[in-house]
Design goal:
With about 280 residues, this protein is α/β, with parallel strands linked by helices. The protein contains eleven helices and ten strands. It folds into two domains: about 100 residues, no CATH class; about 150 residues, Rossmann fold, CATH 3.40.50. A five-stranded parallel β-sheet has the order 7-6-4-8-9, sandwiched between helices. Strands 1-2-3 form a three-stranded parallel β-sheet, covered by helices on one side. Strands 5-10 form a two-stranded antiparallel sheet. Strand 2, helix 2 and strand 3 form a beta-alpha-beta unit.
């Protein structure tokens, strides 16, 4: 099982959806699961790939791109976050959401970002009404110098936790916590189009992308980079966007209409039949 299949608790969440008796210890996935939204073939650039292995992608659009890159055994299963929404629909009596959750573009173990956080904060303050939550990725959250800038701005500063790396230290409830935070807010914004923006749009929140996209060290330009994001999904860019349009696009990008039945998904992933329903 490739270690990225565990990122953000994806394998654990799918095990829960599939009613496996022990979702805390999911069986090995027979292939590579797309672990984040991207405009490429579903795999992170440079991912070591064993030829002939299955690739489980989130959308039909990604499957077609993967096919164009020479991948052949590519199967659309939908995003784990979309399965979470199926399992945990928003309650009818949920509190009225308010304010904005802001996801600054982030780095990771192998690459850092450079940019002016204060300038970005000033733009968010000018554009948003109501309280603002800044959700920093673990990489920036652990940098006290960066976290302090957002705290000094008066933002509520949070982190969804560590995605995990090489089969260690995973926050299995990463997406569960993220969904809870998204539902708490009326809007989700970022300075780059990313998974969190699509998740918010799919969850029925206003979604927008604006501000300095910042620069990622040694970014791989294979699929077009930030300029392509703006060209291909202009509907998400700007201070105000059309909710119906962004929600429809999110359904496409996250494969929300491609989700498999638990029995079907178990067969696709190479998992055993369920013997006990998980609560």
């Amino acid at each position: 099982m490739h270690h990225a299949n565990y990122h953000y608790g994806h394998a654990h969440l799918l095990a829960r959806y599939c009613d496996l008796s022990d979702p805390l210890h999911p069986p090995r996935l027979q292939g590579y699961l797309q672990h984040g939204w991207n405009m490429g073939d579903g795999l992170a650039p440079g991912t070591p790939f064993v030829g002939g292995s299955k690739i489980f992608v989130w959308s039909e659009e990604t499957r077609r791109r993967s096919w164009s890159q020479g991948r052949r055994d590519v199967i659309v299963v939908g995003a784990p976050f979309a399965y979470l929404l199926e399992m945990e629909p928003e309650p009818d009596d949920a509190p009225e959401p308010e304010g904005t959750i802001f996801y600054p573009f982030h780095g990771w173990e192998g690459q850092q970002i450079s940019g002016d956080h204060q300038k970005l904060i000033d733009e968010v303050k000018a554009a948003e009404s109501g309280p603002v939550t800044a959700c920093l990725y673990w990489n920036e959250y652990r940098m006290k110098s960066v976290r302090k800038i957002y705290e000094n701005a008066g933002f509520r500063v949070i982190c969804h936790g560590y995605r995990g790396f090489w089969w260690r230290d995973h926050n299995r409830d990463f997406l569960v916590g993220q969904l809870k935070e998204l539902r708490r807010h009326r809007r989700v914004v970022s300075n780059r189009l990313c998974s969190a923006v699509w998740y918010g749009a799919l969850a029925g929140r206003e979604a927008a992308v604006y501000g300095d996209p910042m620069v990622l060290d040694n970014a791989d330009p294979t699929f077009g980079g930030e300029p392509r994001l703006r060209r291909q999904w202009p509907e998400l860019y700007g201070y105000q966007t059309d909710n119906a349009v962004t929600h429809a696009l999110a359904r496409q990008q996250l494969g929300a209409d491609e989700l498999a039945h638990p029995d079907e998904l178990r067969a696709i992933l190479g998992w055993p039949a369920s013997t006990e329903r998980v609560k």
